[in-house]
Design a protein that fits this description.
Strand order of the largest sheet: 4-3-5-6-7-8-9-14-13
Helix content: 25-40%
Structural class: alpha/beta
CATH topology of the largest domain: Rossmann fold
CATH class of the largest domain: Alpha Beta
Bound molecules: adenosine monophosphate, zinc ion
Strand content: 15-25%
Distance between the termini: 58 Å
CATH superfamily of the largest domain: ANL, N-terminal domain
Radius of gyration: 22 Å
């Protein structure tokens, strides 16, 4: 099988050897930062004391609050003259989490991105339209560098302006697009609404990621745009995208274990969960020089997919993100993940591309209201038809999440649209 670099097809034994050697290196590098210098000494961890990969667990976890407390550069291991780039995570409250990169860090990240894109069939003949935000968000420049590294003609289109995106797509015969799933749904619907047939475009691959989405959503994107859509996972703390990526099998995302160590732990005890169980993903950078991060608690919930992948790669696969440890909604004592709601909604052919979950309070009791856009052709005047649909959606949701949400069926294009990551949950409960 064609591969981008040898690390893509290492054996498990080779991977383990590479990981241990790189772990020792990265720990020694991390100790040059004020933060890890103190923290690792306190925990009694030195590079030589790491004798096997199991010793990773002697390193204390790093949290988002740790990163915030070190703003702006307490995790840097090298002077600013060695750094060539910074990015920040999309968090909206408090100090942003800032990541610094050396030239070598950028090069390795571009290689991982190129490897990921190559894995799903992107080649130098392709025309790549990058429909995500640039700027501090890592998704834009991350895939941009990967595509250029593969030799694709790269169009840094940025997000929004659907008509112009479509014009570029037609005029430059775009074959591969990088697009956030919520925008891909909107974009696909807009394309159909304008009476165009995606079969007239050259587009064949959509790289979708940066926000949680379900298998049903992927199916819709593939149908609306007449493409194969591949899930792309990453976070700024681990460079950005290119951490884990689906292969042609579309059966989970391979984690690039030569560059990262992934663990899945119980968020309460921090003990590893049993193979195949859901838990919080904890990640360690193995190759980053400028700002290594060890055992970072991502708050993303997922599981390792057991067993080998039909593609032949042994890099472990993780399931799509099932939710965030911190965006779980607790309503009447029931834990609900927004993705469960999306999964049910997207199963209804009448339901359009956008929805919003609102948390509200009535008589001091928490409730959820789900506003659901209907497809244009299904938004009829006949109240009986709408009521029947409302009842069916309510029933299915109750079966899934065990409480009864209120459902508002709203017109196509009436809910707010995000240009970046979609804001699916709005909390309207009284504060305090
Ligand atoms: P940021 O660092 O701002 O780019 O945000 C990273 C976060 O985006 C991750 O921790 C995930 O919660 C989310 N994310 C990124 N890629 C995906 C994906 N493919 N599926 C679900 N969530 C994702
Ligand atoms: Zn595979």
């Amino acid at each position: 099988m064609e591969c981008f670099d040898r690390a893509e097809f290492l054996s498990r034994e080779e991977l383990a050897t590479v990981q241990l050697a790189r772990l020792r290196n990265v720990v020694s590098q991390a100790m040059r930062s004020p933060f890890y210098g103190a923290r690792l000494r306190e925990a009694g961890v030195s590079p030589d004391s790491l004798r096997s990969l199991d010793d990773l667990r002697r390193i204390p976890c790093t949290t988002k609050d740790d990163l915030r407390s070190q703003y702006p550069d307490g995790l840097n291991t090298l002077p600013v003259s060695e750094m060539v780039r910074m990015h920040a995570s999309s968090g909206t409250t408090g100090s942003p989490t800032v990541i610094h990169y050396t030239q070598n860090d950028i090069n390795l990240w571009a290689d991982l991105m190129a490897r990921s894109m190559h894995m799903v069939g992107v080649r130098r003949e392709d025309v790549f339209q990058n429909i995500t935000g640039y700027g501090l968000f890592t998704g834009g420049l991350g895939l941009h560098y990967g595509a250029e590294r593969l030799g694709c003609l790269t169009i840094p289109a940025g997000p929004g302006n659907t008509a112009r995106q479509l014009k570029f797509m037609r005029d430059f015969r775009t074959t591969v697009a990088h697009i956030i799933p919520s925008y891909a749904l909107y974009f696909g619907a807009a394309l159909r609404d304008s009476g165009q047939d995606p079969k007239d475009l050259a587009l064949r691959i959509a790289l979708i990621g940066a926000e949680p989405h379900t298998e049903e959503t992927r199916g819709r994107i593939e149908e609306l745009l007449d493409v194969k859509a591949y899930n792309s996972y990453g976070l700024s703390e681990m460079n950005g995208p290119g951490v884990a990526f689906e292969c042609l099998q579309q059966a989970g995302m391979h984690i690039w274990e030569d560059a990262y160590i992934a663990e899945i732990v119980d968020p309460e005890t921090l003990e590893p969960v049993a193979e195949g169980e859901v838990g919080e993903l904890v990640m360690t950078t193995l190759c980053r020089q400028g700002m290594p991060i060890l055992r970072y608690r991502t708050k993303d919930l997922t599981r390792f997919i057991p067993g080998p992948c039909a593609c032949g790669r042994v890099h472990r696969r993780m399931d799509r993100i099932l939710g965030r440890a911190d965006d779980m909604l607790i309503i009447k004592g029931v834990n609900i993940y927004p993705m469960q709601i999306e999964q049910v909604l997207m199963g209804f052919p009448e339901v359009g591309e956008n929805y919003q979950i609102e948390m509200e309070q009535e008589n001091f009791i928490d409730q959820i209201r789900v506003k659901v856009e209907l497809k244009e052709e299904f938004f009829v005047e006949d109240m009986r038809v709408l009521r029947d649909l409302q009842k069916r959606i309510t029933g299915k949701l109750r079966d899934e999440v065990l409480i009864t949400p209120r459902i508002d069926l709203v017109q196509h294009n009436s809910l707010p649209k995000a240009e970046g990551k979609a804001q699916r949950v709005v909390d309207n409960r009284p504060k305090g």
